[in-house]
Amino acid sequence: MIAQKMPKIALLALSLGIVVLCQPVASFAKSEKSKQKHAAEAKASEDSSDEAVIKTQLLNLAKTLVNGDAKRLAALWADDGTYIDSDGALCKGRAALEKRFESVFTKEGRQLVDFVPETTKFLSPQVASIEGIVRRKDGVDGPVPETRFSIVYVKQSGVWLISSASETPLTAQSESEPLKELSWLIGEWSAEANGGYVKLKADWAANKHFITMQYETKKSADAPQLESRQVIGWDPRVGEPISWHFDSSGGFGLGNWVKKDKQWMIEASGVDRDGSTNEATTVISQSDDNDFTWQSINRVVNGVSFNDSNPLKVHRVLK
pLDDT digit string (tens) for 252-283? Predict the structure, then answer.
């Protein structure tokens, strides 16, 4: 598939949660488009099939933990597979894993857990990574998010096995202020590029349980101004922010927010008024209280891939 470029201002709006699309810079010949379409469909079909198998393996992992079968649990790992628990303790190899799991089952009993996948990525046809939340069931209050998991699967002799798995503690959030880590967004912001601009205003809403965002976007000096809205809330099921976005042309979409170190990764998808679909991952890195850097990666519109954008600096409007 041939990647294309899109104007940064349009994709800034898209990746921050606004469905604002533009026409591709270059067009393809019909035969080339047909080849790309068939190749994309074939790859999507293969990836979809493998992704389904991987998620089935994830369900098997949860079922085996519930059954308390240490030997069968260890068999879900590759021979030299590893596991790092939330305390940072490393266990490597099936024999060591079986011993470790047997000890856990003896001391704590069967493990009642749910694995809630958030992202699945294929690093190669034989290697895939999956990340998400581990929710443990205490039998009283229902599933409770406790840790974040990261698993790398490898395909060996046609079977997807765990090469490495790790758990990390979830960052605790105040029930009264679940979006506290995004409080720095409150205020007015602006960015300019290629004669266009984006203006953003963010405000608290509903006792700080939501953040409302209002955007004004122009792709060029002569282009019409577009308006969009976004609402950021908190998803207690996974312990992370979630957002909904709507644009003035009738487009809408959803974004899942995950914090990694000092960056926010937003997996966004949307539907335009004409039915076209788009996906993008936004990387937001806060420089200080008055500046952040924005970049859009993994961008796809109607199955066609686009190049990652260059990092763009967004500045607070000081009054």
Answer: 999 999 988 778 999 999 999 899 999 999 99
The tens digit of pLDDT for each residue in 178-204 reads: 898 899 999 999 998 878 888 999 999
Residue 17, pLDDT score: 42
- Measure the CA–CA gap between 194 and 6, rounded to whole angstroms: 12
pLDDT tier for residue 11 given thresholds of 50, 70 and 90: very low
What domains appear along the chain, each with residue ranges and CATH number? Answer: 8-27+174-316 (2.40.128.20), 39-169 (3.10.450.50)
**Pick from 133, 161, 164, 159: which is nearest to 146 by CA?**
133
Question: What's the CA gap between 288 and 286, in Å, rounded?
Answer: 6
